[in-house]
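We treat protein structure as text, and this decision shapes the records that our systems exchange. We quote a single record here, exactly as it is kept in our systems:
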Amino acid sequence: MNNTVVKICGLQDVEVLKSMLNLPVDYIGFVFANSRRQVTAEGANILLQQLQAWQHETRPEGVGVFVNPDMDFLSKVMEQAPLDVIQLHGQEDAVFCEAVKRKFGVKVFKAVSVHSKGTENHSNSIDQHVISKDYVGVIDALLLDTFDPIYGGGSGQTFAWEKQIPHYQEWSSEHGIPLFVAGGLEPNNVGELITKYHPYGVDVSSGVETNGLKDIEKIKAFIERVKQI
């Protein structure tokens, strides 16, 4: 079985999560940033409780997705929804990432937004192919996602893998930081991504939805495709 880790992001529905309890999922993502998939801290806590009932041998870790949050907001969320990972999708610098890690005792994932045509979103503080070494020893994973001008990520579009992934892969490998790839992944293209680039993990949201809602059959198909390679 392939050891690429799987993150299913943008969960909102308890019943969908209950139907996933036997699946080999490594991370479940809850979006606290402005998005149609946004959840409240109260809602996320209800969903997080389902992770305790996971029946597969590995229990997924709960990931909260944020864009440029302040510490007060993170504190309010963490008081109600005890996340394992805080994923930062904005212009958060290494100092902020380190402060988050220290204050809450969680893993910190840093997302980099890249444009679908292969150019970088230069508003993102670390999206320059050459990432500041200040993040080394601070972040627990680097995540590539397709830039969305409204939400920052979650566009459902792929980016230019061949132009972007090798640069970040080299950086992440050099510094021992796991690399996740997101952006437009779905059951029909995730196999190609893994075969060509062998990322540490893959992250999917809209690619396992039907009419904007998580589809358990698509989730199963995505996971099966990842694990059978």
In short: Residues 118-127 have pLDDT under 50 and may be disordered. The chain has one domain: 8-183.
